[in-house]
Specification:
Structural class: alpha/beta
CATH superfamily: Flavodoxin domain
CATH architecture: 3-Layer(aba) Sandwich
Number of helices: 2
Largest sheet: 3 strands, parallel
Order of helices and strands: EHEHE
Mean pLDDT: 92
Number of domains: 1
Helix content: 25-40%
Low-confidence stretches: none
Radius of gyration: 13 Å
């Protein structure tokens, strides 16, 4: 099973990022989990909606192909 985690905090030592890493570590034999980095994306721009940067296309593809999504927010 493929899971992606989206952490809503950009802080390096974010508690939510630590929680995502703990979930990933403790469940590594149950599912494959990738923590996606929202910090690499630019701000939303309506002018680019139909032709977003490659990083956005890759992010959306990973979410679409995942069996589940975990969202951790501050």
């Amino acid at each position: 099973m493929k899971i992606v985690a989206i952490v809503g905090s950009l802080r390096k030592d974010s508690y939510n990022r630590q929680l995502a890493a703990t979930i990933q570590e403790r469940n590594q034999n149950k599912f494959d989990m990738e923590i996606l980095d929202i910090g690499i994306h630019t701000h939303y721009n309506k002018d680019e909606e139909n032709n977003p940067p490659e990083s956005v296309r890759d992010f959306k593809k990973k979410v679409k192909e995942a069996d589940g999504v975990i969202i951790l927010t501050p």
